[in-house]
Amino acid sequence: FTKDRYQVTRGDFSQVTDADIGQFQSILKNSRVLLDDNDTQAYNIDTMKSVRGYSRVVLKPKTTEEVSKILSYCNDRKLAVCPQGGNTGLVGGSVPVFDEVIVSTQLMNRIENIDELSGTLECQSGCILEVLEQAVSEKGLCEHKILFKKNDSNESSLGMPLDLGAKGSCHIGGNLSTNAGGIRLLRYGNLHGSVLGLEAVKADGTILDLMSNFKKDNTGYHLKHLFIGSEGTLGLITKVSISCPTASRAINVAFLGLESYDAVLQTFLAAKRDLGEILSSCEMLDKDALDCSLNAYNLRSPISKYPFYMLIETSGSRMDHDEEKINKFLQYVMEKKLVVDGTVTNEPGKMKAIWEPRETIGTAMFKDCYSFSYDFSVPLKNFYDLVNATKKQISDLPANAFGFGHLGDSNLHLIVQCKEYDSEIHRRVEPFVYEFTSKLKGSISSEHGIGFLKSKYLQFSKKSECIDAMKEIKTFMDPNGILNPYKVLPKNVC
Ligand code: FAD
């Protein structure tokens, strides 16, 4: 149904034959070539259930050399390939559109080295983000350990520089390929900064060893950046070297209720001013966003109902210092009546209970319903105008719009929720939301990427000369266009 819904035509690629299957089976062992419909189905459908391919084969390499042999073979045969990590992507980039061969990194899950001194982690690209967080924490005492042990330990340890709601399933290779942001980007910056090196396999099977354990390495073109955020269209990432920050010893989380979006903005300004270097997360949710996760998972709200909520986290190294700062901040915003209700805690169980409704919105929005999910960078002063304009745009249709997101990064997630996929709602919302964002000089994809679902709207964020330059890079890296066709670039999509 992807073909009919999105009017896309299959590229001029070969079809997988029994002889091809035989080749794959000789490169991998039989058990790592999935052919049965029951086994391949989940790999063909994305997490939002908005894109469904019909690939007959899923390949599960364990080593870089196997990936190299697979891609080299597919390139010679002109077989299209879809690289897949944890399949949690939200733009339909991780599943085939037609019959592309799926190369899953699920079995490339070896941690190769953790160096406490430099804070460097080296691993294969199929490692699950949460597994890596646990592994680096075991080198001492990291943020997550702090959550469940004491706050006053003198040990120091490592944490991962990124964290997101899908951490239990997403792979580090998928994170790099989408340049994932998440809830701590405000503190640690994006992956272009924290990835020290990587290894990737080009479409023709050439292995590019760009691994490095240093922050500083000015030896010519910074090729690793080509692969960060290119969503599997320029190569398949096989290994990663990433800089892990020292874990914070003191964490506080506040959940605040506010009456207006203007109060949200003023509270954010006060948080930046009063919390400064210890501010590690600043999230906003509107009432319907919070209700979405509370209702889906039967959770309790940390406070009573308000039109807007903010979740503010601080991470520092001394609890008494940080508490003093957060108390001063809270006193200011309450006295100014910017915040009308709130709760603050440094108890591990309570912090988890506050984060839970925010972190589960990403899955709650697909539970028993259909959601059109958007991810914009917009100027903060217009951040919520987009939600209001969308609500108006669909006011006569059986749908609801709500907003939440990483306010501290100007990153709004806009959700349009309805019972099931509805083409009229789809037509009403797109391209409306992209045009609105473009007029504000915003970005039509803040952190999720372009994938399949947004490729035809790329021109709302990139000038034609820039899209042409992207196409030239694609042609240079992958002349036969076998890697993730129909994704990112607006080719082949009517
Ligand atoms: P996949 O979904 O499998 O793939 C994503 C893209 O990368 C595809 O184009 C795929 O072809 C390509 N790819 C995957 N692995 C490789 C590889 N090894 N080499 C080359 N290309 C590859 N995203 C955020 O940025 N911030 C958030 O806060 C956030 N929260 C989320 C919360 C939930 C509940 C969910 C479901 C998703 C969320 N996401 C978020 C989106 C998603 O989790 C991220 O995009 C994540 O980085 C995808 O990783 P993955 O391993 O699942 O990749």
Q: Shape, please?
A: globular
Q: How many domains, in number, for the residues?
A: 4
Count up the helices: 19
Distance between the termini: 15 Å
Q: How much strand content do the residues show?
A: 15-25%
What does the model show?
The chain contains 19 helices and 16 strands. It is α+β, with helices and mostly antiparallel strands and 494 residues long. It folds into four domains: 105 residues, Uridine Diphospho-n-acetylenolpyruvylglucosamine Reductase, domain 2, CATH 3.30.43; 133 residues, Uridine Diphospho-n-acetylenolpyruvylglucosamine Reductase, domain 3; 112 residues, Alpha-Beta Plaits (2-Layer Sandwich), CATH 3.30.70.2190; 93 residues, Alpha-Beta Plaits, CATH 3.30.70. Strands 13-10-12-11-15-16-14 form a seven-stranded antiparallel sheet, sandwiched between helices. A hairpin with a 5-residue loop joins strand 7 and strand 8. Helix 11 packs antiparallel against helix 13. The radius of gyration is 23 Å and the shape is globular. The structure holds flavin-adenine dinucleotide. The site of flavin-adenine dinucleotide has 39 residues, from strand 3, helix 7, strand 9 and helix 15. Flavin-adenine dinucleotide binds next to strand 3, helix 7, strand 9 and helix 15.
List the helices and strands and how they pair.
Layout: H1 2-6, H2 18-27, E1 33-34, H3 37-44, E2 58-59, H4 64-77, E3 81-84, E4 101-104, E5 111-115, E6 120-124, H5 129-137, H6 143-148, H7 172-178, H8 185-188, H9 191-194, E7 195-201, E8 207-210, H10 224-227, E9 236-243, E10 250-258, H11 261-275, E11 279-286, H12 287-297, E12 308-316, H13 319-335, E13 341-345, H14 348-359, H15 361-364, E14 370-377, H16 385-393, E15 399-406, E16 411-418, H17 423-429, H18 432-439, H19 464-477
Parallel strand pairs: 2-4, 3-4
Antiparallel strand pairs: 1-2, 5-6, 6-9, 7-8, 7-9, 10-12, 10-13, 11-12, 11-15, 14-16, 15-16
Helix pairs in contact: 11-13
The structure holds flavin-adenine dinucleotide.
Flavin-adenine dinucleotide is lined by residues 47, 82-90, 93-94, 105, 125, 164-166, 170-171, 173-175, 177-178, 180-183, 231-232, 236-237, 362-363, 447-448, 451, 484, 487.
